């Protein structure tokens, strides 16, 4: 939910040592240290004392050579940026970036200081009673300082962030954010604790603001910016989703082949989706790149707003919020091009001292153009379906994908019932840096008994095989 914002800045990732997996800690100011590292498994922690005048953001940088992340525990425990190479996915408010927040953590008028990035909020949002979160603003959970603890493993680094106790909502947030070697995956375990003296009922709301601006022209919005989410075949909503804010006939929303797509068109709006598939993807078609969140849907639980996934779009138009009708401003400085991809956990009734948790993962990949996402696994995304057809004594195989890790691609040919492997076709090295476009013509005679094909990725770090797609061979 966006009310008052300022202009856009894409945080430019500062590469430290591309060949190593590093953690860099700067107590409140930006710098670009140079470190010596020869082995990919080496993790280094570098600390520098901030000057007295530096803002109390407590910037922490993680980099594994594929992705980088900037975390700001001092202002709401945010992940301010998540990047693939030099492409930063998150929207960052340039006018607030690095500025010391007031003691109140709000503006002089008590309004929201919208820094951008990713953070945790309690759900549902609303203004009709204590059972709803009336923010933003929220000086504790959204804008207050979070304690941070850093742990370094042999092949990973984890950050534990813990908020102060919020007396209004009666909760305390914490989350463990972990980065690994050789993959774009970020693992997040979020936790909400009841610190009140009476029962509380909330869901965890992972709130991510993405940058939908036109980066090439440095003005206007990106017309090739879209979100994708599978619809629940047993959805309680007539269209598979419901409109929460803005016009019900907003042209941004379309459904096709069991997936709802949300194309950013500079019109304000929000939908909720009771998706049971466990993934949500956002594509910058201009850059040919995708951001993915994966989660586990709990079919036996009730969800706030009857939605496990929510999309919000900044833009023009009216919304009914804060118990009034709000006309969104035309000024891009106060109404920037923000696209939100949000994962919501189910309601949990908590007694005093009890906690609930929500696990989800981030991934990203190159897909090489403005392509939809039609499926997703832990190995990558499928943009053009894997197909295999016998034709004129040849086996024609095609498909387009983005992969989440470094490794090797393979086509595995299976017998009927997947009882045995009849052959393996190597596709060579794959990486999140480059789209995987499968286009093969193979002699059909050699694989006459093959009934299906599995596209899988052999993880370069663990050598584990991860399935990306499966298809039956057609005649």
List the defining traits of the structure above.
mainly beta; 7-stranded antiparallel β-sheet; 2 domains; Immunoglobulin-like; Beta-galactosidase, Chain A, domain 5; globular
> Which structural class do you get from the secondary structure elements?
mainly beta
The radius of gyration computed from the alpha-carbon positions, rounded to a whole number of angstroms, is 23 Å
Poorly predicted runs of 5 or more residues: 2-21, 25-50
Q: Strands of the biggest beta sheet: in what spatial order?
A: 10-11-12-13-27-21-20-15-18-17
What is the oligomeric state here? single chain
Q: What's the main sheet like?
A: 10 strands, antiparallel
Report strand %: over 45%
CATH topology of the largest domain: Beta-galactosidase, Chain A, domain 5
Cα(first) to Cα(last) distance is 50 Å
Average pLDDT confidence is 89
Silhouette: globular
The figure for the number of domains is 2
CATH class category name of the largest domain? Mainly Beta
Short description:
By secondary structure, the protein is an all-beta fold.
What does this structure look like?
- The protein is mainly β and 475 residues long.
- The chain has 2 domains: 8-366, Beta-galactosidase, Chain A, domain 5 (Distorted Sandwich); 377-472, Immunoglobulin-like (Sandwich).
- The protein is 0% helix and 47% strand.
- It is built from no helices and 35 strands.
- The strands form 7 sheets. The chain has a 10-stranded antiparallel β-sheet, with no helix packed on it.
């Amino acid at each position: 939910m966006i009310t008052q914002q300022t202009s856009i800045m894409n945080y430019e990732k500062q590469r430290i040592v591309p060949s190593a997996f590093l953690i860099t800690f700067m107590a409140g100011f930006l710098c670009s240290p140079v470190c010596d590292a020869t082995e990919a498994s080496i993790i280094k922690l570098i600390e520098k004392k901030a000057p007295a005048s530096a803002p109390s953001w407590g910037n922490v940088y993680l980099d594994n050579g594929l992705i980088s992340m900037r975390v700001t525990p001092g202002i709401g425990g945010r992940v301010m940026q998540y990047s693939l190479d030099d492409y930063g996915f998150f929207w960052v408010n340039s006018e607030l970036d690095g500025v010391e927040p007031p003691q109140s953590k709000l503006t002089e008028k008590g309004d929201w200081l919208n820094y951008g990035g990713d953070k945790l909020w309690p759900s549902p949002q609303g203004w009709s009673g204590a059972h709803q979160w009336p923010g933003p603003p929220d000086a504790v959970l959204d804008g207050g300082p979070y304690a941070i603890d850093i742990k370094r493993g042999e092949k990973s680094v984890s950050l534990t962030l813990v908020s102060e106790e919020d007396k209004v909502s009666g909760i305390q947030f914490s989350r463990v954010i972990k980065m690994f070697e050789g993959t774009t995956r970020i693992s997040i375990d979020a936790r909400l604790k009841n610190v009140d003296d009476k029962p509380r009922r909330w869901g965890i709301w992972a709130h991510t603001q993405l940058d939908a601006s036109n980066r090439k022209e440095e003005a206007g919005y990106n017309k090739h910016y879209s979100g994708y989410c599978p619809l629940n075949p047993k959805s309680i909503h007539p269209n598979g989703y419901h409109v929460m804010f803005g016009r019900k006939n907003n042209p941004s929303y379309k459904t096709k082949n069991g997936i709802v797509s949300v194309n950013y068109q500079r019109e304000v709006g929000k939908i909720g989706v009771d998706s049971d598939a466990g993934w949500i993807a956002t594509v910058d078609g201009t850059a040919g790149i995708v951001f993915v969140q994966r989660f586990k849907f709990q079919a036996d639980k009730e969800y706030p707003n009857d939605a496990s996934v929510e999309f919000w779009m900044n833009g023009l138009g009216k919304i009914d919020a804060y118990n009034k009708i709000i006309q969104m401003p035309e000024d891009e400085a106060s109404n920037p091009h923000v696209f939100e991809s949000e994962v919501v956990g189910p309601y949990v009734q908590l007694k005093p001292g009890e906690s609930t948790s929500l696990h989800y993962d981030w991934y990203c990949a190159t897909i090489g153009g403005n392509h939809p996402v039609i499926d997703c696994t832990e190995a990558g995304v499928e943009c053009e379906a894997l197909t295999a057809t016998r034709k004129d004594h040849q086996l024609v195989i095609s498909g387009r994908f983005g992969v989440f890790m470094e490794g090797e691609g393979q086509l595995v040919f299976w017998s009927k019932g997947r009882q045995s492997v009849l052959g393996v076709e190597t596709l060579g090295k794959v990486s999140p840096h480059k789209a995987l476009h499968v286009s093969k013509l193979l002699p059909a005679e050699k694989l006459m008994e093959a009934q299906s094909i599995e596209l899988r990725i052999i993880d370069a770090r663990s050598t584990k095989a991860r399935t990306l797609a499966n298809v039956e061979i057609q005649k």
